[in-house]
């Protein structure tokens, strides 16, 4: 049996630690398939729940995107399914933003069952673009530069 990766993005010595947040939820009927387990296509919604909480904490709210003429579409997403999640299960979803100096957001996710067993892991990559033209940023836009500066000075941590 192949061992699964513990992390998806490399950690570089000297870079700030990941910014992490954990949210809780419950598996709803609309999340499940005919076998009463979470349908594979619902995991991105779980990721988004944690990602939205994390982004709000560091100042990357949807309002901030609009005010700064930015978008950050997901350009990559990956999910590894470890254990099924049954209907009504209580879950914890951890999102960890991994340091990058590029104009992108690298976020890793872990979904835990109530007993602490890992049900799924995955990641997303978001690239910053200009809202009007759709052109990608090569260097971090000013909003992200501000957030990176705060992060580098220790302004964020585990939540």
From TrEMBL:
Q: Does the keyword Hydrolase belong to this entry?
A: yes
What keywords would UniProt list here?
A: Hydrolase
User: Which superkingdom, per the lineage?
Assistant: Bacteria
What GO molecular-function term can you cite, just one? fatty acyl-CoA hydrolase activity
| Pfam families per the UniProt record, alphabetical | 4HBT_2
| Gene3D superfamilies attached to this UniProt entry | Hotdog Thioesterase
Segment forming the signal sequence: none
TM spans, by residue?
none
Q: In which family does this protein belong, per the annotation?
A: Belongs to the 4-hydroxybenzoyl-CoA thioesterase family.
Under which name does UniProt file this protein?
Answer: Thioesterase superfamily protein
The protein's organism comes out as: Desulfamplus magnetovallimortis
């Amino acid at each position: 049996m192949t061992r699964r990766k513990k992390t998806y993005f490399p950690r570089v010595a000297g870079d700030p630690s990941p910014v992490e947040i954990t949210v809780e939820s419950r598996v709803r009927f609309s999340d499940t398939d005919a076998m009463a387990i979470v349908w594979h296509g619902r995991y991105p919604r779980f990721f988004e729940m944690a990602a939205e909480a994390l982004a709000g904490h560091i100042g990357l709210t949807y309002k901030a995107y609009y005010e700064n003429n930015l978008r950050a579409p997901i350009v990559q997403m990956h999910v590894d399914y470890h254990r099924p999640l049954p209907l009504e299960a209580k879950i914890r979803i951890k999102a960890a933003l991994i340091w990058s100096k590029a104009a992108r957001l690298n976020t890793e996710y872990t979904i835990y069952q109530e007993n602490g067993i890992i049900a799924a892991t995955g990641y997303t990559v978001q690239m910053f673009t200009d809202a009007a033209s759709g052109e990608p940023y090569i260097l971090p836009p000013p909003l992200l530069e501000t957030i990176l500066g705060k992060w580098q000075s220790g302004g964020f941590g585990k939540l």
